[in-house]
Amino acid sequence: MISESQLESALKELFDDPKFTAEPAGLYDPLRYMIAIGGKRIRPRLCLLAYSLFKDTLDESILQPASALEVFHSFTLIHDDIMDRSPLRRKVETVWKKWNEDTAILSGDVMCIESYNRIAKAPAAVLGAVLNLFTRTAAQVCEGQQYDMDFEKEEQVPMSEYINMIGLKTGVLIACSAKMGALIGGASQTDADNLYEYGFNLGLAFQVADDYLDAYGDEKVFGKPIGGDIVNNKKCWLTTRALEKADPAMKSALLEALALPSATAEEKAVKVAKVKGFYDALGIADEAKNEIVRLTAVAMDYAAASCSGEGLEALRRYAEKLVGRTS
Amino acid sequence: MISESQLESALKELFDDPKFTAEPAGLYDPLRYMIAIGGKRIRPRLCLLAYSLFKDTLDESILQPASALEVFHSFTLIHDDIMDRSPLRRKVETVWKKWNEDTAILSGDVMCIESYNRIAKAPAAVLGAVLNLFTRTAAQVCEGQQYDMDFEKEEQVPMSEYINMIGLKTGVLIACSAKMGALIGGASQTDADNLYEYGFNLGLAFQVADDYLDAYGDEKVFGKPIGGDIVNNKKCWLTTRALEKADPAMKSALLEALALPSATAEEKAVKVAKVKGFYDALGIADEAKNEIVRLTAVAMDYAAASCSGEGLEALRRYAEKLVGRTS
Fold first, then answer.
1. How far is B308 from chain A (nearest CA, A)?
2. The whole model's pTM is what?
3. Do the Cβ atoms of B117 and A128 come closer than 8 Å?
4. What number of C-beta contacts closer than 8 Å exist between A and B?
5. Residues in A touching B149 (Cβ below 8 Å)
6. What span, in angstroms and rounded, lies between the C-alpha atoms of B122 and B100?
7. Is the minimum CB–CB distance between B127 and chain A shorter than 8 Å?
8. pLDDT digit of tens for each residue in chain B (327 aa)?
């Protein structure tokens, strides 16, 4: 099996020089910027890990498709940041804020197309399967973003619909990363499907963990102000579960708290404290932690159905790195 | 050879029911709308025509990739209309105007992805070649749009740069349409390349004709108010050539006319009349018509290098339909 340090240096090389066409600069500079500000490269990392379970040599036919996952993810962030009017991402200005909206639209578009340029490097024998998987996933990510925006207009969303939304917005691309690596590595259909489910459930766990940390994390570790979802009236697992669990009286009191203004720093602090008071009264934090553990266990069951030994251990370490941030 | 009426009914069937996924409606309704308001389907039409030069039977492996060209083109229009703040397209409201900007961004994204869903239906034997061709073309179209926007800030653009820009923005997708049809039809590399050049030069002729008609067309036939490029300070072949041809005194007088305000109907009429006065004094209209004829002849030379008889005649009729609007 390819060692983790080999995968690490392959990833580093891949994104230190992402090889975007040079001209016109107005179009490609935002791509270089977006890749440079980084992130944890969790999708290409998982793709390479899944591949390494089945094959021992790295070449462009896996490295390029793996990088496509990061390029595609960055494209969705560029466009999401316009739609969400987010001024900051990873502590620096977002593309629409640093340049302008038109640049963010068009550079995002070319980044989406660039991801296909990299997908096209998959081995001919699995190109059709990889292309279909990636394209279905890409459309689902857009569907997830649409549901997310639609939900902003709703007072309450059923848990099943919330899970469906985060599955589309976050789960499927992580699932696709694992399955794509497996397919290019030459895995059987069953193993590829098991790795898809591993990634999907891990993706759900990752999103629930993100929701949990948004309310209960350490600001220094989390990298964003705590309580952002509450302040911005964003649907999250905690609110969804709290509204589902509360009795009618508590539910209307919670809805009242969620409707509080949050313009000033003081209003923000009051609103976050009040809403978290309801979470605490309902035991929502513990439920979220249990749900993360449960989803991770489901993911590992799928992993164990196709892997054992060293490979399974690597998938366990990956899962812990990704969602183990609650402990 | 497949008859033109067979191609016609295949095209009709393809776009009467474009088969977009149903949910969420907020995401897919704009796609259905954009395809329904139509256009002349010139790209899939050319793709099918080029295919029919080499193969006699139509099936999904050509029909779906052909439709991808229209879906991709519609995606670029949705995003261009946001960037250009255009309220109308084909006499109806544009997507950002009818819905909103966020919807136009996200629906455009999913439309770009949907075009790849259709490209993926190409026969396995040529899928890699088709995917590479389409992806390179798609990136070039974005590059063309970026140059177009960059040029708005320039007082004057050299003719070579203007031609490069319309080649990217308009030429390459028509070229790609022809070559893709040829590749899927089983053409040799040489024939596929000749059809690419046929489409590329025809695409340039098409754009120069569009520029000509914008100033000299019949509003009822053209479908847009005459003089729109002049009113909106858009770079076009006529202005580019006029600024290149004028002596220094006339050039500065023309630049002055191009800088005139155009807020009211009267200002618009005055500005269009003044600028067209310079075109007339310099004989630009005739030069444009000659350029269209010249580019079309170049296109037909490439066609003749790979086709003869009935096939060549069909390519000639297609060219006349596309750019023969000056006569």
1. 34
2. 0.95
3. no
4. 113
5. 26, 102, 106
6. 34
7. yes
8. 899 899 999 999 888 877 776 789 889 999 999 988 878 899 999 999 999 999 999 999 999 999 999 999 999 999 999 998 888 888 899 999 999 999 999 999 999 999 999 999 999 999 999 999 999 999 999 999 999 999 988 999 999 999 999 999 999 999 999 999 999 999 999 999 999 999 999 999 999 999 999 999 987 777 777 898 999 888 999 999 999 999 999 999 999 999 999 999 999 999 999 999 999 999 999 999 999 999 999 999 999 999 999 999 999 999 999 997 544
CB contact under 8 A, B110 and A147: no
Min Cα distance A159 → chain B (Å) is 18
Q: For residue B235, what is the enclosing H or E element?
A: none
Chain A residues within an 8 Å CB radius of B83: 102, 105-106
Minimum CA–CA partner of B122 in chain A: A128
| Residues whose CB falls within 8 Å of the CB of residue B11, separated by 6 or more in sequence, listed in order | B41, B44, B45, B48
Secondary structure (3-state) at A205: helix
> Smallest CA–CA separation between B2 and chain A, in Å?
28
How many of the other CB atoms lie within 10 Å of CB of A75?
Answer: 25
B176 at interface of A, judged by CB pairs closer than 8 A: no
